[in-house]
């Protein structure tokens, strides 16, 4: 049973997966490879002069896998429902139990609506500053939570905020994810 199930493999979903997997939470990502980033060319990311959306996704998926997340690119999520201990995530082929769910499905808000999330006046999913919805343990990111104001930022943004809130909940205190050179050497040797 994964600790965290992430529905969507664009920048927000992959950022959340990178943070949670890197910090020891069993993480599964359902990525149908339909993100708009395929159409982008990214030249405004800090530390990156120029990279195609496809190349960004390939590199980021590799990082996420290297940190231990399980990427499922061939399973479409059909339903998310609350259970006594967390959530049940159903796909066309299987079902998974998870303690937390991060919805990173772009502008598609249907799963959030079906599971019973509250919406605001703009018909976007209502979240707090940590991207948690009205349902404890369920997070929504990106275009789901803001109308027509979207961005993709490396290792920051909504996916990072959701992951840090999950990590803080799991660790029982405010958690900060900040690597130093010794951490990089340790992670690269694993």
List keywords for this structure.
3-stranded antiparallel β-sheet, alpha/beta, 10 strands, 5-stranded parallel β-sheet, 5 helices, 190 residues
Mean pLDDT reading: 86
Uncertain segments: none
Shape: globular
Strand content: 15-25%
| Rg for CA atoms | 16 Å
How are the strands of the biggest sheet laid out side by side? 5-2-1-9-10
Q: Enumerate how many helices there are, as a single number.
A: 5
- What is the number of strand segments? 10
What structural class do helix, strand and pairing data support? Answer: alpha/beta
Ends distance: 23 Å
- H/E topology pattern: EHEEEHEEEEEHEHH
Helix content: 25-40%
Largest sheet: 5 strands, parallel
Detail the topology: elements first, then pairings:
Elements: E1 4-7, H1 11-22, E2 27-30, E3 41-42, E4 51-52, H2 53-66, E5 70-72, E6 77-83, E7 86-91, E8 95-98, E9 100-103, H3 110-115, E10 138-140, H4 157-171, H5 181-189
Parallel strand pairs: 1-2, 1-9, 2-5, 9-10
Antiparallel strand pairs: 3-4, 6-7, 7-8
